[in-house]
Specification:
Keywords: Cell outer membrane, Membrane, Receptor, Signal, TonB box, Transmembrane, Transmembrane beta strand, Transport. Residues 1-15 form the signal peptide. By secondary structure, the chain is mainly beta. It folds into 2 domains: 20-101, Immunoglobulin-like (Sandwich), CATH 2.60.40.1120; 224-749, TonB-dependent receptor, beta-barrel domain (Maltoporin, Chain A). It is built from 5 helices and 43 strands. The termini are far apart.
């Protein structure tokens, strides 16, 4: 503790402000003779940045005198830089010219360092995806959109209610942190259903970091993070509408409006999704896809303040009614044992905001969020009622020590309150029938030091210390180094660090509730620890007008104390314990982004995975279930500009994976190779209206042998004509149970 205190005192001593004269930088951002509104403008190597106004104008004040590189980025344009001089006397306004970009990915990232930085300059490899990218294969929510991202795999865990989680580089959902505007809104209880409630109407871009990010974000960011950046009200169109439906009867509506009220701007979006048909293509008596009624309303306010200081507040409400089960189920059968059904009512309230404290020359940012998640579920005869409150607060201080050197200090506090109707929160016998909710208070401190060693090299180091009442002090650290050519056509990034995950067993384990298994915690669980190393290399070939961008990464993650569920010891139990040995996730990802002509663009990605564990006394590598060794994604887009037409052909290829089977199970223990492919045609009608349509799952692939004993879901006759002792099972799954279907939609933006 003494060394930690000394460490903080040294950092604070380094961060004392210095004296000196300051000046201003003014200018305008233009492209093709027109102003570019709302471009991001900043001085490289400093914290001075702003957003251009609706006429492309910008101003940076109180900048120390000297020479700088002015960096400008805007969606739809290539990033640009130019040299500027800050003098004591006023200088003429600068003009920055932008060139239209050929890529659908954004260029400004924040997730790797908690500060805005141009993607090519970030020492942490961050992947970015905009709504334009996801529109190549439209989907009603983030969970389905992420199937297009190489190395990120949404995994369905229940064949009846279609709940799932997101795997990054082969690591299961609990190792992936999902953030909204940098705050842990989707976590713990909400991980199963919260992902389906994030509509496209509120998303400006999605940032993906693969590998441990615990130094900045704490527990749950062991495998990586997905940060959903919501739309800025001042950049949103006054009116936007996106509606599409499918031949299965699915209907999705996204609507948004934005406006200014004095110094404040507001964005209001709403999403409605509905599907009420009970389809049974495989004739097992169960719905292939659950029926859903879902609504999400999002409102964000942003206040314009002096020197462009951040001040915004957002709120969201989400409700869903989901059902999957036997075709004859009705609401009166809920929680009964005559007809099997899984009925889930979910309601969520979320509040999040950021406020930059008005302290001269300092960038102190206060962030906070709160969410309440309530769930009323019935899985056959098992009722599950749960409520969770999560409060989060964080204060960060970004302090430039020089033009090339900046320090980030932060303090965070997370409060989680959880209660349900299971033994997980039951009080001792003397206190019953009262429950004893599970309460976790998790404070943390972190520091990040970023050095621009020279024009080509950047070094980033970080340290975090969290305190969990069950485990005491939990440290984590990181190291990242970036080297690039002057034009960043070649970039090498090397990173290493460790992460942690505190115990947070999600008691609504679907394998337990839907398969009638009992959850058994065999011991006092210790926090998981991981060590990770990553090497990333990016190379641009060809001209800026027709680039071929290659991006490859090697990664290796080593786990100790990994918390694993044992499904094999007893078919009626799931036993949780810490792994006595170790676990490894390693692999390779390759991405290619090729603009062959101004009208033809190709995207492709491949991921090779080796995820296994070793236990004492067993020399064999035990492969992780539902984790394919090979997966790939692709997208080809052709724009016939003359006719206002665009054709998108997208898809994914998935290799064999181990599947959770019962003893003597007749179902294959490994899945087959399969591919899900989609085609879409988009027609531009004027400047504001688009009409699009196409076919999903073009090859009509459907998984086989999904449910075990669907004719006896309550296991009433498990001892009759059942020599192998099979029980009803829903966790055997490797692909969506949705066949070929067409879709048609329209988009309008004012």
């Amino acid at each position: 503790m003494k060394h930690l205190l000394l460490f903080w005192l040294m950092l604070l001593a380094l961060a004392q402000p210095g004296a000196g004269q300051t000046g201003s930088v003014r200018g305008v951002v233009r492209a093709a003779g027109q102003a570019v509104p709302f471009a991001s403008v900043g001085l490289k190597g400093t914290t001075h940045g702003t957003t251009a106004d609706e006429h492309g104008g910008f101003a940076l004040h109180k900048v120390p005198l000297g020479s700088y590189q002015l960096a400008v980025t805007a969606l739809g344009y290539q990033p640009a830089e130019r040299a500027v001089e800050v003098r004591a006397q006023a200088t003429l306004p600068y003009t920055v010219l932008l060139v239209p970009a050929s890529t659908e990915t954004a260029e400004v990232v924040i997730s790797g360092t908690l500060g805005e930085v141009i993607k090519s300059e970030s020492p942490v490899p961050v992947e970015l995806y905009t709504p334009k990218f996801f529109q190549k294969n439209p989907a009603p929510c983030l969970f389905e959109n992420l199937t297009m991202v190489n190395g990120v795999r949404p995994q369905l865990n229940c064949s009846v209610c279609n709940t799932g989680d997101i795997h990054i580089n082969g690591l299961e959902g609990p190792y992936t942190m999902v953030l909204i505007d940098g705050m842990p809104i989707v976590s713990s209880l909400s991980t199963v259903y919260g992902l389906s409630g994030i509509p496209n109407s509120m998303v400006e871009r999605v940032e993906v970091v693969k590998g441990p990010a615990s130094t900045l974000y704490g527990s749950e960011a062991v495998g990586g993070l997905i940060n959903v950046i919501t739309k800025a009200p001042q950049k949103a169109p006054p009116l936007a509408l996106d509606v599409f439906g499918t031949s299965f009867g699915e209907l999705n509506v996204d609507a948004g409006t934005a406006g200014r009220m004095g110094k404040a701007t507001s964005l209001l979006t709403a999403n409605v999704f509905g599907y009420d048909r009970r389809r049974d293509v495989n004739h097992d008596g169960f719905t292939d896809v659950p029926t859903q009624k879902r609504v999400s309303v999002f409102n964000k306010w942003s206040l314009t303040r002096p020197e462009d200081r951040v001040a915004n507040l957002a709120a969201r409400y989400y409700y869903e009614d989901r059902f999957g089960g036997q075709l004859g189920w009705r609401p009166e059968h809920r929680a009964g044992d005559s007809i099997y059904g899984e009925s889930i009512y979910t309601s969520r309230y979320e509040l999040l905001g950021q406020y930059q404290l008005p302290i001269a020359r300092e960038k102190l940012l206060l962030s906070g969020s709160y969410n309440r998640h309530h769930q009323n579920s019935a899985y056959g005869t098992t009722s599950y009622l749960a409520t969770q409150h999560v409060g989060f607060g964080q204060l960060t201080w970004l302090k430039p020590l020089s033009v090339q050197h900046q320090l980030l200090l932060g303090a965070a506090y997370r409060y989680t309150w959880y209660d349900d109707n299971t033994p997980a929160t039951a009080a001792p016998a003397s206190d019953r029938p009262q429950n004893r909710p599970d309460v976790v208070r998790l404070p943390g401190l972190f520091a990040q030091d970023e050095w621009h060693l020279n024009l080509r090299s950047t070094l980033l180091t970080g340290l975090r210390l969290d305190h969990d009442p069950r485990h005491g002090l939990v440290p984590s650290g990181r190291f990242n180094y970036k080297w690039g050519t002057a034009d960043n056509r070649q970039v090498l990034r090397v990173g290493a660090g460790n992460g942690f995950r505190v115990v947070n067993l999600f008691t609504e384990d679907h394998a337990a509730l839907t398969g009638a298994r009992q959850v058994v915690v065999a011991e006092r669980l210790s926090p998981e620890r991981s060590w990770n190393a990553t090497v990333n290399y990016t190379q641009q070939l060809g001209s800026d007008a027709r680039p071929l961008i290659l991006d490859g990464s090697l990664f290796w993650t080593y786990f100790t104390n990994k918390i694993l569920p044992d499904y094999d010891a007893d078919p009626n139990q799931i036993i949780y314990r810490n792994l006595r040995g170790y676990a490894v996730s390693r692999g390779l990802t390759l991405n290619a982004d090729w603009t062959l002509t101004p009208d033809l663009k190709l995207l492709a990605g491949v991921t090779l995975l080796d995820v296994y564990r070793r236990e004492p006394g067993n020399a064999a590598h035990l492969r992780q279930v539902q984790t394919p060794g090979f997966s790939g994604t692709f997208a080809a887009s052709y724009a016939a500009t003359r006719w206002g037409l665009t054709v998108d052909y997208t898809g994914q290829v998935t290799g064999p994976m181990n599947l959770p089977v019962q003893p003597l199970d007749y179902r294959p223990s490994r899945s087959p190779w399969y591919s899900l492919q989609n085609v879409q045609l988009t027609k531009q009608l004027g400047k504001r209206l688009q009409v699009y349509g196409g076919v999903k799952n073009l090859l009509g692939f459907l998984p086989r042998h999904v449910l075990l004993r669907p004719f006896d879901p309550f296991d009433k006759h498990v001892n009759q004509d059942n020599p192998n002792g099979y029980t009803f099972d829903t966790e055997y799954n490797y692909a969506p149970l949705q066949g070929r279907r067409s879709f048609l939609g329209m988009r309008y933006a004012l």
